[in-house]
């Protein structure tokens, strides 16, 4: 609700805000310019009587002296029988310059006040000011919530992108903007008679004047008693009209002065309302307080950036709104997904999980966490996917969840897994997910696996979590959701080597080069300064969205950016949209793709042995690791294919690597050769040597299908058992890495 109150008025009035704030910023300079041109006597240096006397010496036909809020003295007189206005030096009363209010400033002022549309424009400006008040107040509340309290208002702000720029700008400008908006709303209300106008409260004319002979203005006591700095306006009596009088307006009030006796005939001090109106004008325009005007002007300049980042945040949130569509009833479902989300991005991950579970034959109910039922009679699995907000708090659609748990009566068969979404820059990384995980455990529910925390919506971490879940539940899940895919680059196919057609496993090594498109000249120029394509290493991922495909497919890279080509190894899947698309490419064809870094699948630095295990196209990144091994660290490859005549991928390269000792040993197993064997068999055959290598600190990297990886992991479990180790141990030490699909 609060977010709507903040966003909707902003979206509606963005254009008006842009005009109001940019014109306001221009106008904010005017008081400083006027102030720098004005000659200001010291306090007590010059009385109004002295000022009027000196002015009259130089301008005998003076009708009025006005002092502007910036301190300029304007004299209206009838020189050469022509009414004219001049700026004068108050100390000497001498001519400075003609008084010509700047036409551009007047135009900008009109634009600011009424969008040059008269009274209807003034009404629009007034409404915009009121909307701005709403936005500022709701924005302050959201900011305090985001930072976790008033005391954190000046602390560094975590997060990134538009959210962060918006919050940083807001906290330094919001007070000034609120003052501008409040004062603007007040001034509009006075203009339209919604609030009383203090100007209607002028003193009434004196009933009696002495009618005596006028004395020189410099001798009038009432004027001698007023400092010229307090003067607003002095209107002279008509020449030769002894019944007329001076009318004087000062910062204190207004009254009349007898031109013969110098007596103050009637003086009405400024009412509270008038003082208020005066200060409101000062605070809105900066007139009389030039430095404050400049502050307001600077703050106004932040508004275009606030509008742009605000619209971007709104758009991101809108495009993230991907609520799962078909959801089973909670009483019928065997799997429950509950989602905690503020900015909607977690819904996208939940939808992907739901789709995969449904494909695996599950009946899935998906809802917001606040919609927790008191029981899920048929459910055996509960997934909680939740982000964290504020300072480690709940997102708004999950803020009742912990309280609702008291009424939750789960069946004993219900197991759960929590997936927290957060940002490591926040001190309480995924805190709400941790709290929920703890609370469910205290409720007596069994965990499927410990909580996983996803940093900044990482698609790779999500995919890995899916792999863990697959193993624990023994179902095939290929989670693939990337809410913010990186900008794509165009690549051209420059080389392809095709294998495996004869054994019904068409697999190709595809090599691409980035294309410098002349159409996107500015883009190219901009990127050229940095790097045309993000740098990548073997094991990183290449994302491609096939035509007619909705989400990108990720392929492990076999090359590094230093190789000058982008290389992937792709097995054609019978129903695979993307693999078929890639296999149908001809040399010279172009595709768009992006790089997704995958630092969790890399050989460890150092000189300890590396055992590489793969099957089929899984050899891609492994071949890349070997190619990079120019330091000749001990690397051993176990790889399984179908037939050495047909799909021995990378055979020539691997033989070269053996010769130049980038590879210590190559062990192959072929499932459709005379001696049928799988990669697990080749590993088992070397069990003793491998155990020794692992005892020496070797690291194992496995790449290929999930079934193959499961088989390999069982074999390794047996191999390392005598060392009192297990694959789980090795994984925890980062010595057993998998990249499976
Ligand atoms: C105002 C704000 C406060 C946040 N506070 C935290 C926090 O305390 N801890 C954390 O790990 N992440 C925090 N985050 C990051 C979000 O949890 C993360 O971006 C998450 O992916 C958002 O998912 P959602 O769009 O589904 O809400 C915060 C983000 C924002 C914008």
Describe what you observe in this structure.
With 741 residues, the protein is α/β, with parallel strands linked by helices. It folds into five domains: 2-32 and 108-198 and 281-314; 40-90 and 203-270, no CATH class; 320-473, 3-Layer(aba) Sandwich (Rossmann fold), CATH 3.40.50; 489-596, Translation factors (Elongation Factor Tu (Ef-tu), domain 3); 610-740, Nucleotide-binding domain of ferredoxin-NADP reductase (FNR) module (Rossmann fold), CATH 3.40.50.80. 38% of the residues lie in helices and 20% in strands. The chain is built from 21 helices and 25 strands. It has an eight-stranded antiparallel beta sheet. Strands 9, 10, 11, 12, 13 and 14 form a six-stranded parallel beta sheet that branches. Strands 18-17-20-15-16-19 form a six-stranded antiparallel beta sheet. β12 (415-422), α12 (431-442) and β13 form a beta-alpha-beta unit. The longest helix has 31 residues, at 161-191. The two termini are 42 Å apart. 39% of the residues are buried. Mean pLDDT is 88; it is low at 519-531. The structure holds flavin mononucleotide. Flavin mononucleotide binds next to α10 and β12. Flavin mononucleotide (FMN) is lined by residues 146, 159, 163, 341-346, 387-392, 395, 421-423, 426, 428-431, 457.
Counting H and I runs of at least 4 residues, what is the number of helices? 21
Average pLDDT taken over every residue: 88
Overall shape: it is elongated
- Are any ligands bound, and if so which? flavin mononucleotide
From the N-terminal CA to the C-terminal CA, the straight-line distance is 42 Å
Largest sheet: 8 strands, antiparallel
- Rg is 39 Å
Can you tell me the number of structural domains? 5
Strand line-up across the major sheet? 4-3-2-1-5-6-7-8
Helix content: 25-40%
Query: Helix/strand-derived class?
Result: alpha/beta
Instruction: Work out the number of β strands.
Output: 25
Strand fraction equals: 15-25%
Uncertain spans: 519-531
